[in-house]
Amino acid sequence: MNLAQRVLLIMTTSTLTATLAAAQSAREIRGPSPLVAIEDEAPPVLVVDPPLAEPLSRGLVFVQYRAQNLRVVPVFGAGALSVSPRIGHVHITVDDAPWHFVDTSGETIVVVGLAPGPHRILVELADPAHKVITSRTVRFVVPDISKS
After folding, report:
1. CB 46 within 8 A of CB 136
2. Are residues 84 and 22 in the same domain?
3. pTM score, two decimals?
4. Which of the two residues, 121 and 36, has the higher pLDDT score?
5. Which pLDDT score, from 0 to 100, does residue 21 have?
6. Taking burial as the number of CB atoms within 10 A of a residue's CB, which of 35, 43, 84, 89 is the most buried?
7. 4 and 58 belong to one structural domain
8. Domain count, the chain
9. How far is CA 126 from the centre of its chain?
10. Could you write out the three-class secondary structure of the chain?
């Protein structure tokens, strides 16, 4: 193999490697562009994980969640109902509290100061007008760390 053939082989291999590495598009990773309306959007899905085990062993409740087909953002009101891609936020209720708090960050839910024993957190995906779209409940037990 002469020098020109070797250079061509190296260039072809490099191009093929770069193409394979870029096989996933930005849209495949990030989802649809927020700059273009989506026709016939899929329904929103809420995924809620159980509390992270290590913090829970210390009495701290860290719950991760994610929304699919809905962007969690701090935008509210009837005017935002027609935004596409769809937007909304999360309502969080601990145990049987008569109130809830709102999350617009999309980040881990953190609840501290719960008494040892069984608890539940209701996570509700809501539209900009606070209408609940779907919900999930996570149940867990806070250990008595005073006995450790």
Report:
1. yes
2. no
3. 0.76
4. 121
5. 58
6. 89
7. no
8. 2
9. 14
10. CCHHHHHHHHHHHHHHHHHHHCCCCHHHHHCCCCCCCCCCCCCCEEEECCCCHHHHHCCCEEECEEEECCEECCCCCHHHHHCCCCEEEEEEEECCCCCCEEECCCCCEEECCCCCEEEEEEEEEECCCCCEEEEEEEEEEECCHHHC
Q: How far apart are the first and last CA of the chain?
A: 71
26, amino acid identity: A
Of residues 98 and 82, the one with the higher pLDDT is: 98
25 shares a domain with 42: no
Answer yes or no: do 6 and 58 share one domain.
Answer: no
Alpha-carbon Rg for the chain, nearest whole angstrom, is 23
Tokens of 111: 């609840």
Residue 20 is part of which domain span?
Answer: 1-31
Q: What is the DSSP letter of 40?
A: T
pLDDT tens for residues 59-68? 999 999 999 9
Pair 55, 123 in one domain: yes
Helix ranges restricted to H, 22-137:
26-30, 53-57
pLDDT value for 43: 93
How far apart CA 10 and CA 7 sit, in angstroms, is 5
